[in-house]
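P.,

For your records, the input lines for the assembly:
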Amino acid sequence: MKCLVWDRKRLKKRFGEKGVKDTELLLDYMTRKGFSILQSEAEKIPEKLKKFEKPNDVFILLGGDDLIPFGRVKNPAYDGDEYVYTDNIYSSSDDDLLLPERIVARLPDGGDIEFLHLLIQKLGEDVDKKRSFGMSAKVWKLASREVFRVLNGRRLLLSPPVTYRDIELPSRHTFFYFNLHGSQDTPFWYGQEGDRYPVAITPKNLEEIEYGVVATEACYGAYIIGKKIEESMSLTFLERGVSVFIGSTTIAYGPFKPPSTEADLIVKLFFEEMLKGRPAGKAFNNARHKFFRTMIKTQGFLDEDDQKTLLQFVFLGDPFTRYRR
Amino acid sequence: MDRRDIERIARDEIIKDFPEFADVPPHIEEREMVVSDSTYEKARMKPRKPSKVWVAVFRKYFKTEDGQEIEKVIRATIDSKGKVIKITHSH
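Structure tokens returned:
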């Protein structure tokens, strides 16, 4: 079953009666395309999913944090985040949130109901022709090459020297990989060499993008709380036509050289699963389970940054998108 | 191993690659890393005993070229014998 999940009351508060009516019309249309609809107060969604679900169901949350709030989990790592914002409260079948079993995706709204409706209408688009774009902070080039290798990427752009002033993004590449710094206060992502942190890419650089699957390791790469479309790289990517965006809601971690761990590992495993032809939502879930097994086998335990990684990475966009050779 | 040994080990390891953290005092804790049985069950793995490790965290703020302040965090995870298991940093 593929199920669209929404909260009418919260949607009315944010977008008014017209927003609700237009959404209901669209959801009627989606039921004719084979989707089920679950309307519920957001706070009751985790409980309702338990009653509603069957194996291999896919749930799609409609809206950002104002419509269906992220879970707020106490940050296990000692850094500047008080909480980790997570969708694991919806994707876990119990209170143990670390390793969810359900496939849950989120279609954000970015304060624009038409944007949300566009994302709903686009559900089910596939990607083909494996062409890959990669960009990394120069300081992490060794670690990033280890991830980008999975995509057989030809050239990993490094920042510096590349910055938002001279970067050229391809319009119809399939996979986009970024390993840059991010911030919750600005939509920009940053490169690094020593003490130099240039602006590597901004939402304005995405004008040529039409399509694809994006995974980023940037801190706050998927932090969308209170953000309008143009204030967020993730929302702008989706608005430009990208089907899938994987990223972190908070400060993310990674190594500066191989082997891949934390954000590097989860992104690498996600790309591997996509290349096997799995639907993106399933690929993301498999990547989390493989992440857990890999870290337990190689390290014997999960430390706080591993735990944080499993909580903070969220899936924005279309869980049905598949890479077709 | 005590806190001072851990600080020395972590600092030696981190300063090699991140000299800009030489003046940063780390936050050091000994932690028991516990994973619940239900998580192991979801992963279809046999539960393992919790591990005790030391974690040294170095935090410092940097300015980007457009004037934003970003926090950079470097973590060293060290076992009870003083072996560095991994070094990670914030993105």
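Two observations worth noting. The CA atoms of residues 61 and 71 of chain B lie 4 Å apart. The first helix of chain B runs from residue 3 to 17.

Regards
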